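hi! just following up on the protien thing from before. the input was this:
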Amino acid sequence: MRTPEEIKTRVEELLSRMTLEEKIGQMVQSAGTDTTAIGGDVKTSPLEGLIAEGKIGSIIYMPDSAAMARHLQRIAVEKSRLGIPLIFCQDVIHGFQTIFPIPLAWSCSFDPDLVQRATEVSAKEATRAGIMLAFAPMLDIARDPRWGRISEGAGEDPYLDSRMARAEVLGYQGGEGGQGLGDGEHMAACLKHFVGYGAAEAGRDYNTVEISPSTLHNVYLPAFQAGVDAGAASVMPSFNLVDGVSSAASPYVLQELLRKELGFEGVIVSDYAAVFEVIAHGLAADEREAAERCANAGLDIEMATDLFNRELPKLVMEGKVPESLIDDAVRRILTLKFRLGIMDDPYLYMHEGEEEKTYLAPEHLAVARRLAQESAVLLKNDGALPLRKGAKIALVGPCADSRDQLGPWQFSKRAERTVTLKEGLEEKGFAVLCEPATTIHEELVGGINRAVKLAQDCDVVVLAVGEDMTMSGEASCRQEICVPAIQMELARAVAAVGKPVVAVVTCGRPLLLDWFDKNANAVLCAWFAGTEAGHALSDLLSGEANPSGKLSVTFPRSMGQIPLYYNHMNTGRPWNGVSDEKFVSRYLDGPNTPLYPFGHGLSYSAFRLTEAALSSGEMARDGALTVSAKVKNVSDVPGTAVLQMYLRDVAARIARPVKELKGFARVDLAPGEEKTVELPITPDLLRFHDGREWVLEPGRFVVMLGFSSADDQLEKLEFSLA
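and the predicted 3d structure came back as:
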């Protein structure tokens, strides 16, 4: 592996030999083999020709094997004038061929170490096919479940998002600072979308965003800072406007925030066609002006369109874009190529013949199964779970025997290997009578009647309902986040039979589950659980695994509550939740509280928290405290408690949230076992941005410990910052 000094020398030597057109070619990324959007033509200028001409520096590539990647790389190395290899990129979001739970789900595990392991597996599988850069992780805070891409991130909390960001970057890149890059088994990570994309108005993709400076810094930037600190190699600007300017064309976003404030030194790559979309935003009159604005803002790579190739040479010659900016961008791109190891071995990631023994390897499936177990959240249970051994099960609903468990933003070509819930339960030895009854949106002829008859003949109904993979993800926003109407008709029909009902909900976002909370005996949020869905869910339903997932996002009671999130401000007239006072911040027709709060999740075990204490009642500005508590398993079932620590700044120069997650710990406990858990409180956890600068103010702070963000489960302590 070359040293940074050696890489710098080689980059400068190569840069000195490049023509302006060759430099700009490194700044162009093709969206696969269709090059029409970047100036190519199938007959006269196909992909191979553009590569040979040095007009492409990277490719969005969705392969199943390394053969095509090797073919294209050979053209770049052997036929272009300087032989600079290509970077092959793909959206490896939650697995490559082995698919893990969606990121919204895996954040519910509160297990960064396991998430890191999942992204290591993702990298190992993807690099077998030639992929060198993953367009992941997505770090957009999302407070509106109507937004389809909520499925792709870590939910609503900046601290949890930051912990997941670090874990994912370390997994993809092989350790701190990208130390695994260049070994052929790890890949560059790309933090996206910078910044505020998850705040899209009305939960509608690509829509306008309006964020105050304090909210931008306190809510939307921390996860990106964590990803940058972990050494992420690249960042993708968001589609949306920030303070009236598209992120891809914003010097404030790319230079002031990303480069200067966060300290990012890597490659900035646009989102798909974002340079061209500057025109639609009303920020440029034509393609030439769009290219000029984005290049001058500091964008390094244009994805999927050809404005840089066509317009930048003239803009540089006319002095409208300094060639020094082009040189800086190309330095960063070439530096990444050296760090990836492809400047010394262009075929480092082409592992022909190794793909099949790597994809869905037993050890990879084991990680997927465990993560799916930890990601599922038991929302309600009145004793119906775990299922009784020997129980006769009526398994009904469109998700009962469906392999549509992988979710959005995955491109596995091995979906047929997905384990269904029916298969998982049958492997456990349960007598399962299965009736889908409906598709996601329509009844199968006579299906509901057949499901009712099965329910009458069985001991328990497992009702498998929810979304299909097309209903969440990018461009899949919903005005009504309900379980589809025909599935609700099925649910009411089987519940009327009077047998215990266990609802298993497959989804890519929080859904309105009030009916299920009132009428089902148990509710398990399965999310899209991935390749091992059926095994993991049957493990949980049978009691072979104990649920430990905690919600990383709030579940509202009704659409009218959205956006709803736990770390809100108090307001000047807060409602106490019980009084009938009119002139307070409340609804006339329902409570403020969610159906299921952030951090909620049940277990087959019961846990007790005692002896919470602080190491001191005062903290110096350069000091630290420790909060400790004893957590005991007071049941006869081994389980994992997730202890959560929240802080509140009681009085500050700007209003602060009623509580903020600032620490957590997974605690494995045998029946009757008790452990002391310690969590640190450092000055970094107390700092906030007032809209102008980061500040650390003296004052009083409340520490809250518990197993959920719900007030009635939190034990409170206080300390002062000197």
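The chain has three domains: 4-339, 376-561, 607-721.
The two ends are 48 Å apart (CA to CA).
cheers
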